Amino acid sequence: MGSGLWSSRLTWLLIAIGSIVLSVLFFLPASWLGAVLEKQTQGRLSLGDVQGSFWHGSAFVGVASGAEKPVTPLFAGRFSWQISPLIFLGQLDAQLSNSESLSAPVHVQGSLSEWQVSPAQLALPTERLEGLGAPLNTIGPTGKLSLSWNHLHFSRDNRMLQAAGQLQLHLTEMASRLSPIRPLGSYVMNFDLQGANASLNLMTEKGPMMLSGSGDITNGHFQFSGKAWAQQGQEAKLANLLNLLGQRRKDGDQDIIALEFK
């Protein structure tokens, strides 16, 4: 058999293999994205009721509860995504949407080593706060939680994730089952992302329960120092609730509750 015939057959074989590979890649199941999410969150989050493909699909984001149990939804509504095939060329171009939880579609653009995230606001489930343990599981907080951000910039440096930008955690019209006063107040915690670390600041937008403080996150370690107190005339009504938050101290002439997390 001539070399030309072998060359022709080899060419067609390579074309066939290439077609199969491309078909597999372009029709990757959306479940692959769920596996990526679980790996990146160390099993804390997963995708439920996954539909579509890796490139264009939808699902709800929930708490991974084991292989034998269904995923419990964490956010309202379904998240839908679109991922550009340009990722094969090292270019990242994706969009994430959820009309019930996101204020606007989130665009992620850049390269695999450096990318930007467009501004948006994400509604958070207040009931999940109790899962953080004491004293929140005793206080039983209710209200509206949301996380907003400006343009965020991410990069990988020696496998370490670096971030730059500002985040704001809004706690609006918060209340507690232990207090007859509703609402207790509205608060905002600002995060300034600085590479692998972040600094944070808590302040009260309105009372009657006042909160303030600052802290940082360094190498994954969270520390915070702040205080809580009642507006004048509300001390007796808030005494029991404040005592659950920390140790009572004097700050000048004012009685406060020290908030210390280290």
TrEMBL record:
GO CC terms in record: plasma membrane; type II protein secretion system complex
Alphabetic keyword roster: Cell inner membrane, Cell membrane, Membrane, Protein transport, Transmembrane, Transmembrane helix, Transport
Main location: membrane
Annotated Pfam families: T2SSN (PF01203)
Transmembrane segments: 12-37
GO biological process: protein secretion by the type II secretion system
Name of the featured protein: Type II secretion system protein N
Organism: Undibacterium oligocarboniphilum
